[in-house]
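Thread title: Can someone regenerate the structure for this chain?

I was given the following input by a collaborator and told the matching structure tokens would be attached. They weren't. Posting the sequence so someone can regenerate them.
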Amino acid sequence: MIDPTGSTTATGGASQPAKKDSSILGKDDFLKLMMAQMRNQDPTSPQDPSQYTSQLATFSTLEQITNLASTTAASASNDYDQGAVALIGKSVSYVDDTGATRTGAVASVTFTSSGPTLTIGSDTGILPVTVTQVS
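Best answer:
Regenerated them for you:
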């Protein structure tokens, strides 16, 4: 499955967060660095105010981008869940664990910690991403 959010594993929906790359600084790291810089500056030669303003603007931008990414991820997860619910009562074709194509009507959707799963006929735990056709 293609993950539109970049923040969950390939099982879809509201699953586990991706591991954080330790080489990438986040907004908390940025704020810690800025505060350390302010604490350790020479009081007889303070930092240029325009640099401080620029750093605050950069931090604000970083925070807003982080918030936007979180909102986008939540929206994508919600869309994925709604798509699964919309399949209830419809006849679908899907690929099972053996690679065979099967067909049946979606009876229900179960929400698990790794996202929604479908019950099709007597088969349970079918991921919506395995659905290849909806009739």
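The helical segments are 27-39, 49-85.
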